[in-house]
Amino acid sequence: MTSILAGRSERVDLRMSPIVNQTLLHAAAATNKTLTEFLLDSGMHAAIGTLADRRTFVLNDEQWADFMAALDGPPADNPRFRALLRRIPAWGP
Q: Tens of pLDDT along the chain (93 residues)?
């Protein structure tokens, strides 16, 4: 995480109760980090974990077979989508 902390240019102001502040300060001290380092490190770990939960999903065998069949099959007819595609100009080469 140290490389992520390098080159900091953004600032975030936090309001918290004294007990929360003391708890965070104690946790930072226990890990030999400043409060800023501790909050950024903890926040990045939480953010990565949160985003990973939204990129990975687990399917059982039946669900996997249904998923693959949907991918292999033709797309469902969607008149509203076809109408939208007719309205948007193609900006290709």
A: 556 656 778 889 999 999 999 999 999 999 999 999 999 999 999 999 889 878 777 899 999 999 999 999 998 899 998 888 888 776 655
Give me the helix-helix angle, 18-30 and 35-53, nearest 10°: 90
CA distance 46 to 83: 41
Query: For the whole model, what pTM was predicted?
Result: 0.54
Sign of the CA dihedral running 53, 58, 63, 68: positive
The answer as to whether 93 is a domain residue is: no
Position 92 in a domain: no
Which of 67, 49, 50, 69 lies closest to 58, judged by CA? 67
Number of structural domains (the chain) is: 1
Which residue range forms the structural domain that includes residue 80? 2-87
- Cβ–Cβ contacts within 10 Å for residue 38, how many? 18
